Every structure is written in C-alpha cells, then in structure tokens.
Amino acid sequence: MGNGRVHFEVYVRKSPGSSWALEMATENRAGAISAAQDLMKEGRVAGVKVTKETLDEESREFQTVTIFKDGLADLGPKRPKVREEVEPICVTPQDLYTIHARERIGRLLEAWLERNHATPFELLHRPDLVEQLETSGTDLQHAVQKIAVPEAQARGASVHEVMRAFHALIERAISRLLGDHRRGALPDVDKEGFAAAAERLTQEPDRSYLLGAGVAASIAPAASWTEKVSRLLDLAEAAPAKGHGRALALATLGQPLAEILGSKPGIEEILGKGLDLGGNLAAMTRLAAADAVDALIKVEASVAKVMPPLSPAAERLAKWLTDPAFLDVRQAIGQRILRDLNGPRRLRPTDAVAEIDVLRALAMSLTAAAGALLPLEDVQSAFSTRSKMLVTGEFVEAYLGSGKSSREEAEALFWLTENIIGPANKRQAARWLKAVVASLRFEKEVRSGPEGVAARLAALAALQKSAGRCGLVTEDSEPIQLKLGDLGGLIEADARLTSSIARANGSAIQRLTMLLKLATGESAPLGPAADRARSEALRLVRSDAARSELAGAPEQVGTVRELIQQAGLAA
Q1: Tens of pLDDT along the chain (571 residues)?
Q2: Is 272 helix (H, G, I), strand (E, B) or coil?
C-alpha cells in the first residue's frame, strides 16, 4: 500500500437520508477538507464527507477511508435501498463532448491535463493526446474509478458494472477519433483555411466534432496558454464573415477558450503572475466585462485606481469577448470570479484598507456588468459572503491597526460598514461601531481634543450623517446617532457656544446663519446642541434687529429662509 496512488474525494448529501454524490476529487488533502467545510458553512448541503482513496498497485482497486464527516445527513428514519433506474450521464461518444461532460473530464483528469498542457476539448479532439492517455498507466483507470463510484450509488448498480460501461464508452470514443484520423476525415484548418473548412462542414452532421478536431490540431504546437489563446484568436479573425459558417466557427473556438480561461494556470498566465487575489479578480473582471469597466473607470476614480492594466494579449482577448458568440467564455470567467469571491482567501493579504477598496471596485464593476456576465443575485450573494470576512475580529483588528484616534477608528468603521452588504454583516459592523462610539476613550477625545469646539462638533455631525447613510437598520443606527448627538451637546455646553454666538457683536444675519447651521445638523450633530441652537435662532429671528437687517439685505433672504425651513422654524 505504501507505493499506491492517493487522492481525496468530497461527497455531499443534498438532504438528510439522500444518497452520497461526488462533488469533487483532488490530490490536496487540506483543499478537500476546506471545500467540504465551506459547503457546510454555506448551507448548500445537509452533510459532507471526505474520503482518502489509495490505489493498490497489485489489485488495481482503491481502498477507501473516511477522514472527515460533518452534517446531519444520517438523521431521520432509514429507508430500504431501492434500485433506481437512473439514466447514465453518458451513453454515446457524442455525449462526452457536451459542456457538462467536458467539465467533469477536466476535474477527473486535472493533473494529467496540466502535465500535458492541454484542455478537455483538446483531449477529445486530438488523436495524439488520446494515445498518450491510453499509455499513461493508471490515469485513465483512476478517473474511471472516481466517476464510477457515485454513478453506481445513484443508479443502484455495482461499481464494476458501471466501470465496464464507461470503459466500453471510452473505447468507442477512442476508436471513432483514431479511425477518423486514419481515414483522413479530420480537417487540416491551417492547410485548407479556417473559413473554408467551417463553410464546408456546416452541412455535416458531426460538424462541431470535425471542426473541433481541426482547431485542436491547429493550437497543438503552442508552447504556452497565451500562445494557444493567440492562435485561437487568429482563427477567430480568419472565420467566415457571416452566416452559419461563422456561427459554427466561433462556437467551436469558444469551447477551448472557456476551458483555458476557466483554469487557474491558463488565466494566471494570460493576466500575468505576481498578482494577489484582489488584483487577479480585478483583471478577470476587466477582461470579461471590458465595456462596463472602461465606462466606470471614466467616472469612478476608485475603480480606475484598482483595475490593473491588461497585457496586449489580454486586451486583444477582451475585445473579442464582447462578441455575443463568446458569451459562454465570458460566463466561464464570471463563474471563476464568483468561486474565488466565495472562497476563504484574502483579496489583499497585507493591506486591509486596500482590500475594502478593491472589493468596492469589484462590486461596482460586477453589478454594472450583471445580466450578460452573471446573474445579479449571484453577484450579491458572493459579496455578502465576502462581506462576512470583513467584520471578523481578525480583519477589523488588522484594518484599524494601531496609532489611530478613536474618531479615526469610528470613521474607518463607518467606511467599512458602507462597503459591506448583508443584514447579518451590517449588524456585526454596528456592534463594532457602538463599541467605539460608546467608549470612554471616544468621549474623552471628542470633549477635550486639541481641535477647536467648532471642528469637533463638525466632525461629530459628519459621523452622525455617516451613521444614517451606511445602510444600518434603524435599531442599529439610532443609538449611534443619539450617542453622537449627546456628545455634541456636552461639547456645546462645555463651551457655551450657542449663547456666545447669540450674544456676539457681529451682525444679526451672521449670528442667525451660524445658529441655523448648528440647528440643522450641518455644523453640529442633531441632539441637545442643535436644540439649543434652534431655540436661540428662534429668538433671534423674531427680533427687530434681525428683521431690519434682512429687509436691508434681500440677497441673503433666500439662504436664511432655506436654513430656517431646514431647522423647522418656518411658520
């Protein structure tokens, strides 16, 4: 057993008592357990388990050991097993070429495909790759074993029976491809011309398969993912100008493009290595939604600051992705963005402040592009999940750092609150805010800080407005606003500001304007300070001196009248 091959499989149960279904297979133990835990946290399944699968080189069978299990999947009365007549996922060789089958092939043969620098599309269309896989030893057997177990459970059949069926299907698919290659039925699009081949094959029943073989052969010499994409775009430029031939050509090219851009090695090579997760997601968003992002960059400096420039190859690709024929490619990138947003990794591991900036820019960009790229509800759900990470103690501690005054901490927390979504996340942010605003340290700083009385009152007024616009429910925002108002009242009372203004030597209009700005919450928080200013303003506005000055300065009447209305003093 020591020399056996090992991989880990994640199984899920959608509801208590249902059968286990394979969710993913990987050679990374920690990744498998993390994925299982994430599925449970998101509430998408009733139960999960991770098994360690070890291949015995002598018996050619896998030995299974469960290393992790969670959930309530085993609750409820046990029901007798019933053999279900479930249609196999693939019946004919052509079934292997569907998008869902290619996705499954990509997961099952991920390591082998990465070693051979190929995509599932290429494997299904290139005779040389098929022959390599057949002679690779245990890779194909390993893949069949991984898919046969959950398929057998779903159909109520034996694993060996299902494996025999899959092997027969694979043999038929291989024989078909190799036979067509030997007969010369597969087109050489480089020699014939891509447009001519596409036009010629539009009348063929197997046109997608045949043209796909020509495309796979054309990109086979490419030494990198970037070169493969470049060759695919060269073919796109050489496609027929219109009609069925163009539709067939672009639909065929979209398949390998989607697979390359949906894989981690492919997208990282095209966008450039060295980016953190936030930079990678920003670049992917700009690639998949170039029109929406470019429009935002023109009007939103915060988006322009976050979005990294695209390489010439990526810019060329971005222009092609605006073509409706490549919608599936854009959506493949979009789904990868969602997966990473829903994952546990930090966007900016070393800079919490920048993490909020990049999340805000991504939210604006993906919301602007929602619809064609991703469903809006999926975008909102992903940002709600990501927001949950931003209100944890670990992140808030890193975000606030050290050396900030309590007022600066409050300002930072209001900015954080404004940039997260989800009721539970807003509620948690409100708890952080209340802890800062209600602290003795905050009260001491705002009452006896080095700034003048007017500056401190204006700062509290700004915080109070932030509490009203950052998306908190009334039950959370009101106590914060009331506390800020009470602190403003203490500062005003300590300085006797209102009475000083009312009795100053300046003109009545100047004094009235200053009092009205205090009363309206512009230069002091609403609360006791504003109430006292309102009372003094009411006395002053009724005085003969103020009426006389206003009569002699008609150009200031409009401004004063507006402030009076805002303060609620209008008759």
Answers
A1: 334 467 788 888 887 777 788 777 777 788 788 888 888 887 778 888 988 888 766 655 677 888 888 886 454 444 444 444 445 556 788 888 988 889 989 989 999 999 999 999 999 999 999 999 988 768 888 888 888 888 787 777 788 888 888 888 889 999 999 999 999 999 999 999 999 999 999 999 999 999 999 999 999 999 999 999 999 999 999 999 999 999 999 999 999 999 999 888 899 899 988 889 999 999 999 999 999 999 999 999 999 999 999 989 999 999 999 998 998 889 889 988 999 999 999 999 999 999 999 999 999 999 998 887 889 999 999 999 999 999 999 999 999 998 999 999 999 999 999 999 999 999 999 999 999 999 999 999 999 989 999 999 999 999 999 999 999 999 999 999 999 999 999 999 999 999 998 888 877 778 878 888 888 888 999 999 988 988 888 888 777 776 777 666 665 556 566 666 666 654 4
A2: coil
For residues 11 and 20, the answer to whether their CB atoms sit within 8 Å is: yes
Long-range contacts for 16-21 (Cβ within 8 Å, ≥24 apart)? Answer: 16/46, 16/47, 16/72, 16/73, 16/74, 16/75, 16/76, 17/73, 17/74, 17/75, 17/76, 17/77, 17/78, 17/79, 18/46, 18/73, 19/153, 19/154, 20/49, 20/150, 20/153, 21/150, 21/153, 21/154
Structure tokens at 158: 């034996």
pTM value is 0.72
How many Cβ atoms are within 10 Å of 395's Cβ, its own excluded? 17
Contacts of residue 555, Cβ cutoff 8 Å, sequence gap at least 6: none
Q: How far apart (Å, rounded) are the C-alpha atoms in residues 403 and 62?
A: 57
Q: What is the largest CA-CA distance in the chain?
A: 107
Distance in angstroms (rounded) separating the CA atoms of residues 215 and 249: 9
Count of beta carbons in the 10 Å neighbourhood of residue 446? 24
Residue showing tokens 């290595």: 273
Sign of CA dihedral 497, 499, 505, 511: positive
With vertex at residue 296, the alpha carbon angle to CA 295 and CA 298, rounded to the nearest 5 degrees, is 70
The H or E element spanning position 52 is strand 47-55
Count of Cβ atoms closer than 10 Å to residue 160 Cβ: 11
Question: Could you give the CA distance from residue 27 to residue 326 in angstroms, rounded to a whole number?
Answer: 32
Q: What is the DSSP string of 339-384?
A: HHHTSSS-SSTT-HHHHHHHHHHHHHHHHHHTTTSS-HHHHHHHHH
Q: CA–CA separation, 70 vs 406, rounded Å?
A: 42
For the chain, what are the domain ranges? 6-71, 84-180, 403-495, 507-519+530-566
Q: How far is CA 377 from CA 171, 260, 338, in A?
A: 43, 26, 11
